[in-house]
């Protein structure tokens, strides 16, 4: 039987710093990404390469509000650091919108948007980074606050974000990844519009973990979910193995101070999604690794996605069932070819409405029809045993009903998202093609992951200049 670290007396070690203790706060009911409280999930679309007021790569975030017909260009909110009420100002290389996350931080019944700006310079120090919150409300997003800025031990704070109850106290916490000596920071709730995070800050160096992360890359991606089914969230932390650029992925239980020494390691990847695939009340993890085995030992020919099932608290997640999904796997259409990038984007959501979380896997470098790096998305149905190896579908810009056409460099599937934006009980598929139109980027929306009524839109629709490479759709959450 696994002995959970929460049952042990743990002292403060140099790997983790506890700055203050949390206080009690009641949980709220607002769903993430419902910024105006109308019951529809909204899309948060980052364009970290966007030019703002002539400042290259200052960055922007577009929030497209959901509705009965899905998101569209009529109702949206464009945010930059030049937006009234957002602290600071747009500067070259800030990268506002490199990462986004959402929760109802101040428990007022409206979801709030957290934005990472890893290129922010502070106090004369380059690329310290910063994370900010933009508050939700009846009319949508307005008003902002800086939650935390990087310091002498942290660089590029906000290059990764995830939100959840990471200490099992009923309050929301914000986890942020960065680089340097301190590369993982957890802000503990409660939160207020006036004071930000009132529960304190915990900071850790992943270089001190049993399998050390390389501080030059730091924490590059975060996801979170209740993989134990016990009412608290675990962090899935992505970085690189120290001294290499090989993927390293760990599952962290941050309820205890010395969580680094109790982390579990799962197959390495660069992105992940969390959701209940098997309908057992525990969230499962889908890990994407787009690289070849010659470049990364955790990779596979053409790339792969690994499904790791959640487990009761008494067991190790790393010892649970895992399914390696490649384009050569039974039932998966196509064939694994070098450079496809299968696993470049991953998502979990129930697009069939049967209660099982279904899978979406992007292969942004898949080439076909004489065009290079056009991209595809593979859809797989979830079951009680994992995923169904029959009935899989592949979508691309060449699929009938999908807007636009497949062109070299589009990278359709670089980001994928499954979320119910129409409030009909089925997840809709949103796809980011970050290379569309020479790096402008674009989003495709497909209701219930079908091509009926599919839509697409790019940065110009929302007033984002296409100067340079905005990379609209990186990130994509909702």
Automatic annotation (TrEMBL):
Q: Does the keyword Isomerase apply?
A: no
InterPro entries in alphabetical order:
FG-GAP, Int_alpha_beta-p, Integrin_alpha, Integrin_alpha_N
Family annotation (SUPFAM superfamilies)? Integrin alpha N-terminal domain
Signal sequence span is 1-26
Please give the PROSITE patterns that the UniProt record associates with this protein.
FG_GAP (PS51470)
Record's superkingdom? Bacteria
Region Disordered, as annotated, extends over: 457-478
Keyword hit for Cell membrane: no
Task: Tell me the protein's name.
Answer: Integrin-like protein
Q: Write the lineage as a comma-separated list.
A: Bacteria, Bacillati, Actinomycetota, Actinomycetes, Kitasatosporales
